[in-house]
Design goal:
Length: 265
């Protein structure tokens, strides 16, 4: 089972935090204390992160679907049928996959720095990275992407945090996740059809230059999607703008605590 921690808070509602690639629950350091004042919080380390199983430990191909099952396995173990989800970067991508697989288990979703697809520049960078990934240390590749994704001086803290925490991964785990990047677009393919009833709040920095334009375009048809783009903010918006992120997320979840269960065919 994935490594998880239950931060016992107030009330019966649960909020699940999902981190990005190379990250861990420390990425939510500026969220945990305030969220525990209102909710029970579950932090989960995805495969290859923290003390969770390696991506190579499974007796099947490492896929997005496998990760979806692993997250739900934790919730089943804790007897949590429905929860609010908060993700950052890869965590938001995985929430889209959860919404496609079992939308009625998601009460609401806050998706920070979300990626719906890669644009021409990011696709080119990924292809270059794929070509050289076996010839250079994986941390070189990670650092290059971190600087390209978060290039400005006001991105420095989140950039340093991501690089520092990624050093705790091993090469095979990082490359296992890297191989899933071509499937990012598929995680959003039927979200609007399957989960149009699930309230979603997209929070991104206006300076999240690789992803924010595609996100804005792709989510236009979703009647349950609310979007907020933060000024002077890059990819890791919960770190760069924690006060704004917390206020927006808490208000949104509070408004959607009592969303009734809707049966989906």
């Amino acid at each position: 089972m994935l490594e998880y921690k239950v931060h016992q808070g107030v009330g019966k509602e649960y909020v699940v935090f999902l981190h990005g690639i190379g990250g861990n629950s420390r990425i939510f350091g500026k969220q945990l204390d305030i969220f525990k004042k209102y909710y029970n919080v579950i932090t989960i380390h995805l495969p290859g992160h923290g003390e969770s199983p390696s991506v190579e430990s499974y007796n099947e191909k490492f896929t997005i679907d496998l990760n979806v099952r692993e997250v739900f396995k934790v919730l089943d173990h804790l007897q949590v049928e429905r929860a609010h989800f908060i993700g950052i970067s890869l965590g938001s991508v995985l929430i889209h996959a959860l919404l496609q697989a079992a939308p009625n288990r998601v009460k609401s979703a806050v998706l920070g720095g979300c990626i719906t697809r890669f644009n021409l520049l990011s696709n080119t960078l990924l292809k270059i990275g794929d070509a050289v990934k076996n010839m250079i240390p994986f941390m070189w590749l990670y650092k290059i992407f971190a600087y390209i994704m978060m290039p400005k001086s006001n991105h420095r803290i989140s950039r340093k945090l991501f690089i520092r925490e990624a050093k705790k991964m091993n090469r095979n785990d990082f490359l296992g996740w890297y191989r899933l990047t071509p499937f990012v677009k598929s995680t959003y393919a039927s979200v609007q059809e399957r989960a149009s009833h699930v309230p979603k709040l997209y929070i991104s920095g206006k300076e999240d230059h690789l992803f924010v334009r595609s996100l804005d375009q792709d989510t236009k048809g979703d009647p349950s999607a609310t979007k907020v783009f933060l000024e002077d903010c890059g990819h890791v918006c919960n770190v760069e703008k924690p006060n704004e992120f917390n206020r927006l997320a808490l208000d949104f979840i509070y408004k959607n605590q009592d969303v009734p269960l809707r049966r989906v065919q």
